[in-house]
Write a structure and sequence with these properties.
Number of domains of chain A: 2
Mean pLDDT of chain B: 81
Largest interface: A-B, 58 and 52 residues
Low-confidence stretches of chain B: 437-513
Shape of chain B: elongated
Distance between the termini of chain A: 35 Å
Oligomer: heterodimer
Low-confidence stretches of chain A: none
Helix content of chain B: 25-40%
Structural class of chain A: alpha/beta
Number of strands of chain A: 15
Radius of gyration of chain A: 19 Å
Shape of chain A: globular
Strand order of the largest sheet of chain B: 3-2-1-4-9
Distance between the termini of chain B: 98 Å
Number of strands of chain B: 19
Order of helices and strands of chain A: HEEHEHEHEEHEHEEEHEEEEHHEH
Radius of gyration of chain B: 34 Å
Structural class of chain B: alpha/beta
Chain lengths: 336, 513
């Protein structure tokens, strides 16, 4: 890469950091328990809006896997999410009524919190409907993974989003607060993903899955990106460039092996397609706060009213991480 | 008084080291502990206090230790000297680290050593026999000087090594030193260890070894050859190394694996592996089988990790494996067959082929309107959509995904000049060349097989009198014809095996027409 391109990326990173500072001035503290963060803790960062029904399971899932502290940005919820989170002993909460879109889909707020509280910590940045599955996630907590990554001098850990969906209409089975969403949405597409390299940032761009197959058959290039780098040993000079799809400096995006081997990686199970989805899609369509003029939600809205069933006879039922490993959706890599 | 003493080198997870030291000390084995100077004073004091009630635990002067440097040998030397001086009953000295965990009762280890009173257990192999060193430095460990830290001053380290190589510098080995390497975790007899530590030439040897790279893997391993009577060239400590030369860590889910290995001590254990520590640090009247340690039993798990990390699964493209061109180690997960033009000539060619081979045979999966999967399905294995737009968005991954999703089941499909041609670039250049050299259907660079092309222009596709005499050869191999095989780079010769056209001719439709 040419020197001036490298320098341009450096400027871009600085720009994101300044922008994060600027946008974060709209954040108002609801509960600040960051004093309780210990030096070895793994932190979880999350932006949300009206996700109360998911939070109970979300918190218990990640607590069980060894996350010590949660930092939430609440974007003007009115369903009690903020109050619920403020009561939790291991959560710090900020709130803002500002535009989600103008904060680069929440990334500016998160970048700021990462810089302030994530420095020298392993930080997991996820949405409330994303559940990290990594090799040995049934027997080893996330700190086991991060300790191993530290020992291997690896700074970032990649995961692909795997859209989970129920069999039949997605509104057929109502989701109850606190229950495992993957009891309902337990199906996924095992092998219809396409990958391209993004040469500018060095990351992979993955598309496919049920969303692409159902909503984007005519415009596959517009299908949502599924590559994510949710777990990073943060340094205050880092910045997420576009959602959690890519980071700057660009070396952090190299979570894949180019010489034939497999690096250790995980999967983010995406519990988006529950009965709550159609109301959410309608609401988001009205707010117009999502990526590319909410093209994704427009497509969903059109698609869901026609045929709300993602299931095909080639769908796989989720069992555990070993199944995902065998299917080639994630890899143990060198971790044994 | 016990006949076995331990030397422990600790630098992290001191609470675990204390647990293990207590385990040994309470079972009447003296322990001498060295704690890295870099550990904070307060933590060190806590650690000492934790073990204060044990009278057979000693601490040596703390040195600043760094991986790959002489300081680690110094630490073990001083601790071993203290152990030998203070506990005269000790006949074997076991060098362990703070992240070691005993897997079998100490009594068993003592009995095992008592049965072999004059044997030194230390991996000690000549440089030629070593296959595990990582980084390319084998004999150069001894022939060059390494004054700079690899961890902290990588640039100086590399530059200095490079400089020495360029000027052809070679160190002189001291007399009687034949370089040997091995695991740094050993168990030596009092006689051998005393001889090494009281060697009249110790100063000279130390001067030499202090500039060797990673001397803790070579100092004792080399000198033991001069003094020991019987050497068992293996370590009693189970440790597995990965492709970077970094030890694999053991977790709770390795419990059965560790049990099965029958080793006495394992390293490294994850400090938070509560189940391992709770299980192995209790005396639950372990079944004393006096089994021989067999670290090889659990090799499979770790050699597979190595294979996966370095070679990966052929034909897999995913978010942590995206090989550069020609590094795929197999472009697709399995060989597959492409039938070029056959179904334009013969009625129901797919059906016939499928019946004949008993496999799934697809139609033109690159048809410009939609992918013609077998049975005309709208989705196929893995959730592949039959939409032409979706397929043409990335035809290579469409194909590789299809082959990956149907591993264990031979895939065959039709292809023709009317199909979407973008995939052509994916196919092996050798096969493409072959296609080009055959007389073809006009502009298209890869034509139908030679047996059929002469008639294709003149007769309708389902013609009954296709007079392909039996000596005409078609470029179909048996049962893998013009396959873009998974490993085409290595097998270009056999792929083009030919067969008699007559034996392959689809009989059904020809007769009926």
């Amino acid at each position: 890469m040419k020197a001036f391109k490298r320098y341009a990326l450096r400027l871009q990173r600085k720009k994101y950091l300044v922008r994060a500072w600027r946008k974060s001035r709209a954040l108002r503290v609801v509960a600040d328990r960051t004093n309780a963060i210990g030096p070895q803790d793994v932190l979880c960062f999350c932006t949300l809006r009206n996700e109360k029904v998911r939070l109970k399971y979300f918190l218990s899932y990640y607590r069980d896997r060894g996350i010590s502290h949660f930092l939430f940005v609440d974007n003007d919820s009115n369903d009690g999410s903020r109050e619920y989170l403020a009561e939790q002993d291991d959560c710090s909460v900020w709130t803002t009524p500002e535009s989600y879109k103008r904060a680069r889909f929440g990334m500016d707020w998160i970048n700021r919190l990462l810089r302030l509280y994530g420095h020298k910590h392993w930080c997991l940045v996820v949405d409330p409907d994303e559940f990290l599955v990594y090799p040995f996630s049934d027997t080893r907590p996330i700190p086991a993974l991060t300790d191993w990554l530290d020992a291997s001098s690896i700074k970032s850990f990649g995961a692909m989003i795997l859209d989970m969906y129920p069999k039949g209409a997605i509104t057929a089975q109502p989701y109850e607060e606190g229950s495992d969403p993957f009891q309902i949405a337990c199906w996924f597409d095992p092998g219809n993903y396409v990958i391209q390299r993004n040469w500018q940032y060095g990351n992979l761009w993955i598309q496919g899955g049920p969303r692409a197959r159902t909503f984007f058959t005519d415009a596959p290039a517009k299908a949502p990106a599924l590559n994510k780098i949710p777990l990073v040993k943060w340094h205050k000079s880092y910045a997420y460039a576009s959602s959690t799809h890519m980071l700057l400096p660009r070396g952090l995006n190299l979570v894949y092996d180019e010489w034939g081997g497999e690096k250790t990686s995980g999967v983010l199970l995406h519990a988006k397609f529950l009965d709550t989805f159609s109301t959410k899609a309608r609401e988001e369509l009205e707010r117009r706060q999502h990526y590319a003029a909410s093209a994704e939600y427009k497509a969903y809205h059109a698609g869901l009213s026609e045929n709300p069933d993602f299931w095909t006879k080639w769908s796989e039922r989720y069992i555990n991480w070993r199944q995902l490993e065998i299917l080639g959706l994630m890899s143990k890599g060198n971790w044994a | 008084m016990s006949s076995l003493g331990f030397v422990m080198l600790c630098h992290t997870a001191l609470h675990r080291a204390a647990q293990v030291a207590r385990h040994w000390a309470e079972r009447d084995c003296p322990v001498v502990i060295h704690v890295d100077r870099q550990v904070k004073r307060s933590r060190y004091d806590d650690f000492r206090r934790e073990l204060a009630d044990l009278e057979n635990v000693r601490f040596t002067k703390r040195l600043r230790c760094e991986w790959g440097t002489w300081s680690l040998v110094q630490a073990s030397q001083s601790a071993a000297e203290l152990l030998l001086a203070e506990f005269p009953g000790v006949r074997h000295v076991y060098l362990a680290s703070g992240s070691c965990l005993p897997l079998r009762p100490v009594d068993e280890l003592q009995a095992y050593l008592a049965a072999r009173p004059m044997t030194d257990f230390i991996e000690s192999v000549t440089i030629r026999d070593v296959d595990w060193t990582v980084g390319g430095l084998n004999d150069e460990r001894f022939k060059l000087r390494f004054p700079f830290s690899w961890k902290r001053h990588r640039f100086l380290f590399d530059t200095y090594v490079d400089l020495q190589r360029r000027v052809g510098y070679r160190r002189q080995l001291p007399d009687g030193v034949v370089p040997h390497l091995g695991s740094q975790w050993w168990c030596l007899t009092r006689q051998t260890l005393t001889a090494i530590l009281q060697d009249p030439r110790r100063r000279e040897l130390e001067r030499f070894f202090s500039l060797v790279w990673i001397p803790d893997e070579s100092y004792y391993q080399t000198l033991v050859r001069n003094y020991a009577r019987t050497i068992e060239s293996r370590s009693l400590t189970l440790s597995k190394f990965d492709f970077q030369g970094k030890p694999h860590v053991f977790y709770d889910d390795h419990l059965h694996l560790l049990r099965r290995s029958d080793c006495f001590v394992a390293r490294k254990i994850w400090p938070k592996a509560n189940r391992l520590y709770n299980t192995f640090l209790t005396d639950d009247a372990a079944i004393s089988r006096m089994a021989e340690p067999a670290p090889g039993k659990i090799d499979r798990v770790f050699s597979r990790a190595l294979e996966r990390r370095t070679r990966g699964r052929p034909g897999l493209y995913m978010h942590s494996r995206f090989p550069n061109p020609d590094w795929e180690n197999g472009k697709t997960a399995a060989p597959y067959s492409v039938f070029h033009g056959f179904n334009d000539l013969f009625l129901d060619f797919e059906g016939w082929l499928s019946r004949r081979f008993g496999t799934v045979v697809h139609g033109n999966i690159f048809d410009p309107r939609r992918a013609r999967f077998a049975g005309d399905a709208s989705t196929y294995a893995g959730g592949l959509s039959s939409s032409a737009t979706m397929r043409d968005y990335n035809p290579e991954h469409f194909l590789t995904s299809m082959i990956w999703n149907t591993r264990g089941e031979r895939q065959s499909f039709m292809f023709g000049p009317r199909d979407s041609q973008k995939i052509g670039a994916f196919w092996p250049p050798t096969a493409m060349r072959r296609f080009r050299s055959s007389p073809g259907l006009g502009r298209c660079s890869y034509t139908c097989p030679t047996a059929i092309s002469p008639i294709s222009g003149r007769r309708p596709p389902c013609c009954s009198g296709a007079r392909s005499n039996s000596s005409t050869r078609c470029a179909m191999s048996n049962p893998a014809p013009i396959s873009g095989s998974g490993r085409w780079r290595n097998s270009s010769k056999n792929r083009w095996r030919t067969c008699k056209a007559s034996s392959m001719r689809p009989r059904g439709p020809m007769r009926s027409a």
